[in-house]
């Protein structure tokens, strides 16, 4: 009975964490470039149950079978697929239209292209959110004020918002002078990137992300005055949320039944005459 109590509790915890993840996805459904998280739910190893000292006395065991020990949410990982592009008409908005990339051998899935960003502490971050702006010094930044990097590894000085950007990121200011080229980098898979909030990701691998500018093996096109939508499938998220609630309630019902049985065991058995 105690084992069943913990199994039901583990199911409730798992569904609660899954619900939190789905809620985060839904809250970012309008965040440009946001990549929806998906969960991996695993079962704890089963226990092999035997009846001891049976069929012959001491030292003889009879096999009963396996006993499940509960489940847990192993991880949440982003779904790196291209979101739809939306025309905004805003000159500082930029979207990456990613071409076909060969699947990686380790993951079986293609990697993803990103913009490079430097945060306020000097850390390198990456994003698909091209909702840029120009600060008072004429530098290209994201909505949090972090600098967007060019191929030289320095913030891009575009002067003002009236700049022009070519398909591979070449930027000319409002006078027609070339001022730099937007950096685009490649990440092999989601396991090497960790979300740090506000649409930013940090690389946890030992090797830095490589620039793909000028590399025909990584086809892409930058589209000015466009934004990449979130890839959150609202209908699927709502269906998953409903299933998570139902699974939570089912485990809650089982747990309450075990609790009532334990209460009766503690209060009633001792009163039997």
UniProtKB/TrEMBL annotation:
Domain of life: Bacteria
Flagellar basal body rod protein N-terminal domain: residues covered: 6-35
Residues in Flagellar hook protein FlgE/F/G-like D1 domain copies: 113-150
SUPFAM superfamilies: Flagellar hook protein flgE (SSF117143)
Compartments where found: Bacterial flagellum basal body
A Pfam family reported for this protein in Swiss-Prot or TrEMBL: LlgE_F_G_D1
Domain Flagellar basal-body/hook protein C-terminal: 223-267
Any one GO cellular component localisation term in the record: bacterial-type flagellum basal body
GO biological process, one term: bacterial-type flagellum-dependent swarming motility
Family stated for the protein in its record: Belongs to the flagella basal body rod proteins family.
Name used for this protein in its record: Flagellar basal-body rod protein FlgG
